[in-house]
UniProtKB/TrEMBL annotation:
The chain crosses the membrane at residues 13-34, 41-59, 75-95, 107-125, 184-201. It is a multi-pass membrane protein. Keywords: Cell membrane, Membrane, Transmembrane, Transmembrane helix. Pfam families: Gly_transporter. PANTHER family: INNER MEMBRANE PROTEIN, UPF0126 INNER MEMBRANE PROTEIN YADS-RELATED. This is Glycine transporter domain-containing protein. It comes from Deinococcus arcticus. It is found in: Cell membrane.
């Protein structure tokens, strides 16, 4: 049997498709939050687009790809606008499902953490650089979304649900896989690890320990 060979064009198309799916997912995530906060159409489009391209812009900046990809390839902006528009039109229906926002957020986190790791590998960074770049790429859009929407960024307080840690684990997975598989397969594997860790943490099967300091004398007293 002959091994499946991936041409450069096929690889590029696959990686681009994953990137666009991540943009669409994060756009839906940001725009749905805007709908829930009763933003107008312009506000929904802005928050959705900023959320969608924020992580990618951080990734491209860290890996020296300037201007960011979304400015060089307008398909990313169109995908962000599409996701934001869908959230505005169907937001009332989607909001009925409590996990909808989390689902799109997890998809965006997974795909951007993995694509950030691929970009860092292509730039020649070591394992720590790949993990750091992938993590920031994954959480960047969500942090920007929460700050604009006047929310505390999820990575600052949701210790019981892995977020930045899941993104870092996905980026590390990409780095471990990339010498042995195609970039598309490595990115897909890293994204899958992020999604699984988020799923496990939401069910209480995986979480980080929290250190609580004992109250000193006089604390808590009126």
């Amino acid at each position: 049997m002959h091994e499946l060979e991936w041409s450069p064009i096929t690889l590029e198309a696959g990686l681009r498709a994953l990137d666009l799916i991540g943009v669409l997912a994060f756009a839906l995530s940001g725009a749905l939050l805007a709908v829930r906060k009763r933003f107008d159409l312009f506000g929904v489009l802005v928050l959705g687009c900023v959320t969608a391209v924020g992580g990618g812009a951080i990734r491209d900046t860290l890996t020296g790809q300037t201007p960011p990809l979304f400015l060089r390839d307008e398909a990313y902006l169109w995908a962000a606008l599409l996701g934001s528009g869908l959230a505005f039109v169907f937001g009332a229906r989607l909001a009925r499902f409590e996990r909808t926002l989390s689902l799109f957020d997890t998809a965006g986190l997974a795909l951007f953490a993995a694509s950030g790791a691929i970009g860092a590998i292509n730039f020649g960074l070591g394992p720590l650089g790949v993990v750091f770049a992938g993590m920031l790429s994954g959480v960047g859009g969500g942090v920007i979304r929460d700050l604009i929407a006047n929310e505390v960024p999820e990575i600052m307080y949701r210790s019981e649900q892995l977020y930045a840690t899941a993104a870092a684990a996905g980026a590390l997975t990409v780095w471990l896989l990339h010498p042995h598989v195609t970039p598309f397969q490595a990115q897909f594997g890293g994204a899958l690890v992020v999604a699984l860790l988020r799923w496990f943490s939401r069910r209480g099967w995986a979480r980080l320990p929290v250190r609580r300091l004992p109250e000193g004398p006089g604390r808590g007293q009126g």
